[in-house]
Amino acid sequence: MKTRVLLSFNIEKPLWSVVRNLLKDAEPRHIVITEPYTEPLFNSYCAVSLDETDPRLPRLRAILSEAGIDWLERRELLFTKAELEAAPLLWLTFGTKPGGSIGPKYRTEYDLSHACPRCGTGAIQVSPLRLNPAEIPRKGTIFQTFDNEKLVSAELAKAFSNAEVTGLELRTAQSFRNLTDLPWVQLLAEVEMPPMLPSSKGISRDAQCLLCGRDGYFNSGYEPTVIQYGADQVILDNLPDAVHTYEHFGYSRLEVPFKNSYLAQPLLLVKPKVFRIFRQQKVRGAKFIPVNSASSERAANGI
User: Fold this and answer.
1) Which of 72, 167, 185, 267 could potentially form a cystine with 157 if both were Cys, beta carbons 3.0 to 4.6 Å apart?
2) How many whole angstroms separate alpha carbon 266 and alpha carbon 250?
3) From CA 223, how far away is CA 200, in angstroms rounded?
4) At what angle do helices 154-162 and 272-280 cross, to 10 degrees?
C-alpha cells in the first residue's frame, strides 16, 4: 500500500515553468500533472499528484509557499492487486465524470413508508432509474449520476449475471420521456450494513437530518477514507457479494412537489469477486478501497 498526495492550486504561467522544470523527469505512472487552464471561474488551475515519498514533494510545497500561493492537499491510498484480492470487502467508487440530474426529477418512483419522514433518507427505489438521455453518456462501460447512482453497460451487467454475483440487483435504466430502456444498468445492493465504527477515517459530517442523522456524510478528501466495521457487528466473510452502507452520502430533503426532492445515496461495497470481474472486463475508471474489520474495543483504542 502506498499513499499518493494530490496538490491543487491556482498559478500563473511564469511560475508554472518552474514547477514543470521540477517535475520534468517524473515518470507518467508516478505523477499526474494537469496543465494550467484559464477560465473566469477557475483562474489558472493546476493539479499535481505525487507519491508521498517522492523527494520533489517538499520542494514543490516550498516553491508554492515562497510564492505566496495557497494550495489544497489531499491524500489517497493505492493498493496492490494482492491487497485488494485479500480484502474481505471493498468500497467501489467510479472516477468517471457524473451525469444525469440530481434527485427524482424525472419521476423515478420510491417507497417512502420506511424512510425518514423529515428528509426522506432510506427511501427505497421501486421503479427503474429514469434519466434524461441528453444528460448521460451515449457509450462507455461505467458512469454515475450526480446523485451517485452507479450504472454499468449491458455487457458488464451480463458479466455480473453470468458470475452469479449475489446481493446485487441489475436494473435497466429508462428514458423519462417514453420509459424506453436505456443502454445502462443500475447497480442496487439489497443488504444494508450496520453503522460504521467511529474509528473510520476520511469521512466528514455536515448539516445532518435532525431526526435520523443518516444523511450529510461526505468523503473529506483531506485524508484517505478508511471504512471500518466491528468484528462483533458483522462477519464480513458471510456477506453477499454486494451490500450498501447504512450511512447516506450527500444531503436529503423532501420537497413538494416530490420531483424537487433530493435523496442521499449509500456507498456500494463489494467482495473481491466483483473486483476480479472489473479486471477481466478491463474496465477503466473504477476504484476499489479495502474495508477493515476490528473489534469495537480495539477500534476505540485506535488500533
Assistant:
1) 185
2) 9
3) 11
4) 130
Nearest residue to 205 (alpha-carbon basis) of 195, 190, 215, 192: 215
State yes or no: cis peptide before 28, omega within 30 of 0.
Answer: no
Confidence tier at 100 by pLDDT (50, 70, 90) = confident
Q: Residue 100 is placed in which grid cell? A: 444525469
Rg (CA), the chain: 21
- 108 class by beta-carbon count within 10 Å (0-12 exposed, 13-18 middle, 19+ buried): buried
Overall average pLDDT of the 61-71 stretch: 87
Gap between the Cα atoms of 53 and 127, Å rounded: 49
The pLDDT score that the predictor gives to residue 289 is 95
Over the range 197-215, which residues count as b (16 or more CB within 10 Å of their CB) and which as e? bebbebbeeeebbeebebb
Q: Grid coordinates representing 182?
A: 436505456
Average pLDDT over residues 164-189: 96
Q: What is the pLDDT of residue 168?
A: 97
109 burial (CB, 10 Å; 0-12 / 13-18 / 19+) is middle
Strand partners for 250: 217
Which pTM does this prediction carry?
0.83
